[in-house]
Amino acid sequence: MQEHYDFKEIEKKWQQYWEQENIYQVPDDSERPKYYCLEMFPYPSGKLHMGHVRNYSIGDVVARFKTMQGFDVLHPMGWDAFGLPAENAAIKHGIPPATWTWDNIEQMKAQLKQLGLSYDWRREVATCHPEYYRWGQWLFLQLYKQGLCYKKHARVNWCPACATVLANEQVVEGSCERCSATVEQKELDQWFFRITDYSQRLLDDLKKLEGWPDKVKIMQENWIGRSEGAELAFKVDGTDDEIKVFTTRPDTVYGVTYMVLAAEHPLVAKLSAGTPQEAKVAEFVNRVAKQTELARTSTEKEGVFTGAYCINPFNGEKVPILTANYVLYHYGTGAVMGVPAHDERDFEFARKYDLPIKVVITPSKEKALHPDQMTEAYVSAGFMIHSGPFDGTPNQQGIRKVIEYAEQKGIGQGLVNFRLRDWLISRQRYWGTPIPIIYCEQCGALPVPEDQLPVLLPTEVAFKPTGESPLKGDADFVQTTCPHCGGKARRETDTMDTFVDSSWYYIRYTSARDTQEAWNKAKAKGWMPVDQYIGGVEHAILHLLYSRFFTKVFYDLDLLDVQEPFENLLTQGMVLKDGAKMSKSKGNVVSPEDIVARYGADTARLFILFAAPPERDLEWSDRGVEGSHRFLNRVWRLVYSVKDQVIAAPPVRAENYIGVHKEMRRLTHYAIKKVTEDISGRFNFNTAISAIMELVNGAYTYRDKVAEVERDPAVLAEAINSMIILLAPFAPHVAEELWQETGHRGSVHKEPWPAYDPAALVEEEVEIAIQINGKIRDRMNISANLKPAEMQEILLQKESIQALIAGKQIVKVIPVPGKLLNIVVR
């Protein structure tokens, strides 16, 4: 008998078989229930890393398990193939981005197949393929027609290293989320999607996502940032101009002692023009323009008086207008009313520039606060004072009353504000989906006619490290004719943010080869929403929020029947080595290819699923990998040692078994129950694998301690067959080989998932006599599988025994295993 299985031969053999037999191809028109399992698709970098292996192994277990439970499982894979790394490779190595990308796709696809993943490769998509981005352009045009897509001149985030614009969501603590370069501000004409039109729905529908982790929902809720308050209008003294501010604290409006405008606010230059402050304001504005958003909001607050004043519409007081670095033009109205007595930031700013502080909320009617004695702003609840008709009003009630008053007087209105900004989708790069817009001097900006899609991305372009998209210099691409007047026109040279491509790919999988439409609505209805989505928590704001927005738009356009894309979400943890995330710079990278070459794909999968629950970080362990490999070899040896008995075994009898046979059946059905429950919903793969290990140990015990002639072949066969099926989602190649070796036909992955027998879980019991000081006082049934100490502990906790010894002190407990328990009391 072989001590070790030949994983190289076995894995290659079964991968070829699965592909030849098309066992993972799923139909669209089956009568079986449907289940959509999806892992986030990768960027084709050329190499899988251990995070990929973990992500895809988790999804593969779910997909195989649901298939064996009788579902038609849609389990596709594709490539998020546009993006900057391909352009960098073109500059560095002189390789066209398309060549670099498709070569990487071919390499990574082979690696995925090497892992034995159950993908329906007929549905493969690549976002850089014209038949994919054609429909991305078509979807852009649908948003354009609905007014959900627009172009405007805007101050935007600019990454100097990537030489492109970034959406707000792609800026992390003032740095580019891709390359970590410090982000600058720049004025450019840019394309936007009007995601803010969906702010409230995106927020409200988070409540429907019961299968999502709370942390992801909280992150989205905070990013959307709904706040209720009032928009109030302050007239600029001596002019017809007015300044609108949004505040969540209208109850403090009588405490306004200054107004602050963002440096970019158009009124700043206008108000300071011709005043002694003009030069000082201009210098300040120019200096702030060079600062990042992070620097402006996290460093010391700075400001300059503009030379102008505005009038508080509630009390007629004239307050100075300043410009400051901490107010951002694209948030709210670009103006903030300063209430230093009741806002900590305003308090610090007022103290620095010796601005007045006026208390209008006090802790109690009897106790007033004095501005000169305050060391910090008072931000707690209290009563309104120095607030005209609202004096004595509890400030929480005052919020509503002040809003009603403002609306009656026409000086403001109640308003809901959101932190979420419109999605900036323009990128000044080459390797992306061309934006389907044409510019004509006579007709203006026009959408490309749908029958002219796709606008093809040229492949023969010159790459030079100039920081500009080579599309601008490609006359054949840029020069075109106007679809309206037929005159000379030019194409848009910006491409779309790659997050546009990844915000609808999960729908394209339902009709991956459709050449007539982005997807077939009937097929999408059959599969959507995704039942289980799996990927990293780092996509909580970007990809997951954008996908939710797109799905709602498509629902409104009658293209989809669902409003949320992903029913359930699992965010897996990172794979760590020596306590740190694997990275080349740290020198702690473990190559999946090396592990597969040394131990096999099943070992790699088993270890990464066994080492930690999927939502937690996983610490890589070479010893753990070796342990997983030893376990699979142990399974191999067990099955081969008894396979002849298994092949010849009759079905399990209906009557009850006793003794070791009953215990073997109990272990088998406990494992079935445990693995089923742990995979279903909870995804406790580590404890599921532990249950399989316990079953293997029990089968070894049954084999070794029961003579062959005394073993019940039906009980043994049930244990071995169940063990192979339970192992199949985790180690698909070994399970497939052992299934065939034990006399079965067809793939183990097409076998029905076993159901446990509740009757088999009932443990064998013995009757225990209960003695008190040597006299039998009771008899009880208890599991025969317990150790004497366990049996004693359980019996002493029984209410009837507690009643027998109530008020007495236990001196000694004398157990006679399997017979009696003598309790000595006094």
Describe this structure in words.
With 826 residues, the protein is of the alpha+beta class. The protein is 37% helix and 20% strand. It is built from 26 helices and 34 strands. Strands 10, 11, 12, 13, 14, 15 and 18 form a seven-stranded mixed β-sheet that branches. Strands 2-1-26-27 form a four-stranded parallel β-sheet, covered by helices on one side. A four-stranded antiparallel β-sheet has the order 6-5-9-19. Helix 18 packs across helix 19 and helix 22 (685-705) runs antiparallel to helix 23 (713-727). It is globular. The chain starts with 6 loop residues before the first helix and ends with a strand. The model has no long low-confidence stretch (mean pLDDT 92).
Topology:
Elements: H1 7-21, E1 34-39, H2 50-68, E2 72-74, E3 78-79, H3 84-93, H4 97-114, E4 125-126, H5 130-145, E5 149-159, E6 164-166, E7 171-172, E8 175-176, E9 184-193, H6 199-204, H7 214-224, E10 226-236, E11 242-247, E12 258-262, H8 266-272, H9 278-289, H10 293-298, E13 303-311, E14 318-324, E15 335-338, H11 344-353, E16 361-362, E17 383-384, H12 395-409, E18 412-418, E19 423-424, E20 426-427, E21 437-440, E22 444-447, H13 475-478, E23 479-481, E24 488-491, E25 495-496, H14 498-501, H15 505-508, H16 521-527, E26 530-535, H17 543-556, E27 566-571, E28 575-577, E29 580-581, H18 592-599, H19 601-610, E30 618-619, H20 622-648, H21 659-679, H22 685-705, H23 713-727, H24 732-741, E31 765-772, E32 775-783, H25 788-796, H26 799-804, E33 810-816, E34 820-825
Helix pairs in contact: 1-24, 2-19, 3-4, 18-19, 19-20, 20-22, 20-23, 21-22, 21-23, 22-23, 23-24
